[in-house]
Amino acid sequence: RKEVEQDPGPFNVPEGATVAFNCTYSNSASQSFFWYRQDCRKEPKLLMSVYSSGNEDGRFTAQLNRASQYISLLIRDSKLSDSATYLCVVNNYSGGGADGLTFGKGTHLIIQP
Amino acid sequence: DTEVTQTPKHLVMGMTNKKSLKCEQHMGHRAMYWYKQKAKKPPELMFVYSYEKLSINESVPSRFSPECPNSSLLNLHLHALQPEDSALYLCASSQDRGIQYFGAGTRLSVL
Lengths: 113, 111
Hints:
The structure holds two protein chains of two kinds. Chain A is mostly beta strands. Helices cover 0% and strands 51% of the residues of chain A. Chain A is built from no helices and eleven strands. In chain A, the strands form two sheets. In chain A, strands 2, 4, 5, 9, 10 and 11 form a six-stranded mixed sheet that branches. A five-stranded antiparallel sheet of chain A has the order 1-3-8-7-6, with no helix packed on it. The radius of gyration of chain A is 14 Å and the shape is globular. In chain A, 35% of the residues are buried. Chain B has no helices and eleven strands. The model of chain B has no long low-confidence stretch (mean pLDDT 93). Chain B starts with a strand and ends with a strand. Chain B is globular and about 35 Å long. In chain B, the strands form two sheets. In chain B, strands 2, 4, 5, 6, 9, 10 and 11 form a seven-stranded mixed sheet that branches. Chain B has a four-stranded antiparallel sheet with strand order 1-3-8-7, with no helix packed on it. Chain B has strands spanning 4-7, 10-13, 18-25, 31-37, 44-50, 53-57, 64-70, 73-79, 87-94, 101-102, 106-110.
C-alpha cells in the first residue's frame, strides 16, 4: 500500500494565527483526497474533501497539486477548538471498487490562548 | 453525531475468550470497513465489504473474522487474541466509492 507522509508536529500556534499543513502522497494513481480531524480518543471525522481547483469551507482552505502529489490545508483565525490531530487521507480505488483509506500519521495541532 | 453505531464502546477480554464487535449503519451505504488504530498511530485498514461480499483482506490474522449479515450490519468476531491486539477498532461505511464515515469505535483491551 502506497504511503502518505505528513509532518507529525506538534504545531503550537497562538489563537487567531493562520496555520498551514502539508502532505505528500506516493501513488500517482490516487483518486480521492481528504482531510480528516481526530480528537483525542475519538473517531476520525471528515473535515473536507480536497480538489485540484481548491475548496474553502469557512476558515478552512484545502488544495491539491496532482503534478507535485501534494495536499495542503490552511486554517485561518485559529480557535482553541481547532486543537486536534489532522489526518491527510488518500483513497486509491485499486481494482475499481470500494477501497480502504490510506492515512498519513497525522499532524498534531495545539492552539494556545 | 456519527450515523455509524458501534457496540460495545469498551471491551476487556482474556486471550482465551471469544467476543464480537458490532457495527450498524442505516444510511444505505453498500461498502463497510474495519480499521484498527493503535495509540498515536493512524488507522490501518483491516477489511472491506462491498455489497455484503468481502472484497479486501489486508493480510489480517485469522483470529479476526469479519462477517456481513446484511447491508446494514458488520461484525468482527474475535478469538484467541494477543495483548498486542489491544487497540481502537473503527468501523466505517461509504456509498460505494464515496466519503467514509466512521463510528465512535470499540476500545479493546486484551489481557
